[in-house]
């Protein structure tokens, strides 16, 4: 594919501002945690599975799961903590699917260990549900071809990369990241789109992810 080939639609880069808000909802036991996991807004599930990435975007590897940490460190349920920590977030296309997996993991554990549901956390160790709020803002950047895309990707903030990779797939339920969606539907390059979509963004920093995507795009332009 010639590197300057025009796309059907340019890729418009957006960024986001993030705020975390207390909900007033809290759990003292596994039973209460399960009930709330099933009922809280999806923004809460997103926060407690992506908090680490949102607050410390330069660090890796895969961020810890707040639910896993609490049941292990506060309630002392090490086995359940390990089960929750092993949930592979990248496999889920929507927050609903991720929520269902977390809830099912807790419910299964409670069936196997009924007494675990009665263990009580002190008031100062309760699990407080927080919701993640994002405000999406346009940037001045738009790419009409792969060359422009690679150049702009070097300039945008990591908040922009975070939005197009994580929020687009899970919160906006697009099924993939924005970059891959554009490459397939507007650029007509399904192979490139698939290669970007196959990246696991949870196992590297956002700066590393930026460099990886730029490298893949530059290699494609040179082929």
3D structure, described in words:
- The protein has 223 residues and is of the alpha+beta class.
- Helix content is 51%, strand content 15%.
- The chain folds into two domains: 11-16 and 138-222, no CATH class; 18-131, no CATH class.
- It has helices at residues 30-39, 42-55, 66-73, 78-85, 95-112, 146-153, 158-171, 178-185, 190-197, 206-222, and strands at 11-27, 127-143.
- Strands 1-2 form a two-stranded antiparallel ribbon.
- Helix 2 packs across helix 5 and helix 6 (146-153) runs antiparallel to helix 10.
- The protein is elongated, with a radius of gyration of 20 Å.
Overview in brief:
The chain is an alpha+beta fold and 223 residues long. It has helices at residues 30-39, 42-55, 66-73, 78-85, 95-112, 146-153, 158-171, 178-185, 190-197, 206-222, and strands spanning 11-27, 127-143.
Number of helices: 10
Overall helicity = 40-55%
Give the number of domains. 2
Q: How confident is the prediction overall: mean pLDDT?
A: 90
Query: How is the biggest beta sheet arranged?
Result: 2 strands, antiparallel
* Structural class by secondary-structure content: alpha+beta
